[in-house]
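Run log, item B.
One chain of 328 residues. Sequence copied directly from the ordering sheet:
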Amino acid sequence: MARNITMIDAITEAMAQEMERDERVFVMGEDIGLSGGVFKATQGLYDKFGEERVLDTPLAEGNIIASAIGASMVGLRPIAEIQFADFITPAMESLVQQASKIRYRSAGGYGCSLTVRICCGGGTGGGLYHSQENASWFVHEPGLKVVMPSTPYDAKGLLLAAIRDPNPVLYFEHKKLYRTAKGDVPEGDYTVPIGKAETRRQGRNMTVVTYGYMTSLCLEAAEKMAKNGIEAEVIDLRTLSPIDKETVLESVRRTNKCLIVHEDKRTLGIGGEISAIVAEEAFEDLDGPIVRITGPDIPAIPFAPPLEHAWMVNTDKIVAGMEKLAAY
């Protein structure tokens, strides 16, 4: 049976059900126990599973991830929370030098079944250190899987898939979606496959490739364009590593145009990789240039509301990009 619930509720439900199903699963992070997390994603888990499986940690991201890696290597399945993506940098050494390489360096002798939940994204007045969407940092590292859901259904299914995966998975959650994204989510057990994109809207005039919070904005922009006779196909990547290039290429070869939208900064963002894939493998199918709508190359998202609004990708900017591409 499916219920209409928020993304934050879908995330909480996934953790609770998997902890109930598998006693090896535990959660750890800052303020996740007694207080239920700063966004209440772990609310109720402490009361149900106790302090041995819901661990409040010091404010030390590097220690959180290093400890979780050690736990995974002795057979446990930790879910480590990074309260804000901006503060993941102290854990970079553990993630990039250790978690991503454990299976390779041990010739398969050790695995690292680690799930890292990471709150990310701007548009909420978080300012410089509570607003980044920096998933592309980790897409560059073979050995790490990177996912970012855009719907409550995918939020639960991808999280269950991540926890059960024998490899480290970075699970990015856009805070704008926590309570604004609502949808039907089954009560029971199911998974969404890691590495498979989803076509959210069919179209014949252009392919729009996006993920996370930007998916809803792209769908809004596509509906506006449809009023003028331009039908955009919207592909939600869902997984940023590995990228489902087959779904992207099939669509581009059919629509002959490609627009890429992401909130992250422009240089070396996911859009650059998608552009390269399309240019290398579908160049002769294109009837126009590949267009990217992204965040600007500015060090941080401003705190002042007018400046934050100017920084953020929005529906109007996406529509402008669609109009530009449609003109070719």
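Observations after the first pass:
- The chain has two domains: 2-186, 198-326.
- The mean pLDDT is 97.
Flagged for discussion on Thursday.
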